[in-house]
Amino acid sequence: MSNLTIDPAIEQKLIDLTIDHIKKVEANRDVKTEGDNFDYWNSYKLPDGNFIDYNIYCGDEWCVLKQDSSNEYVYTHPNTWSWDVTCYHVNPPNDQNKYQQIDTGIYKHILHYKNNQPHTK
User: Fold this and answer.
1) What's the mean pLDDT in 88-101?
2) What pLDDT score was predicted for residue 105?
3) Is 3 part of a structural domain of the chain?
4) What is the pLDDT of residue 100?
5) Residue 99 belongs to what domain range?
């Protein structure tokens, strides 16, 4: 459906958080973060108390299979990596569910990033 509306100031904040994450991982791929460095999910609290979930995803080019039949992977150089961030609507708690719940059908892709170059949509 991809029709999530995000306040421009909040969208910029999410872009800033994304670029910070990407730069941290590209500088040290094994850096400790709050999640998976290459498929990072987090929530952003909105002023009204609701949330937007966001996913910072690095494409498949961040690693390659070793050519020694070990079935192990090695990291590629960060200049080959491309990143995307997509934001998702989060439904607030209700009578049927006492917790917030992500709705992946309502989303907005807000950034593509490669070679230190952010591209907003």
Assistant:
1) 93
2) 94
3) no
4) 92
5) 8-120
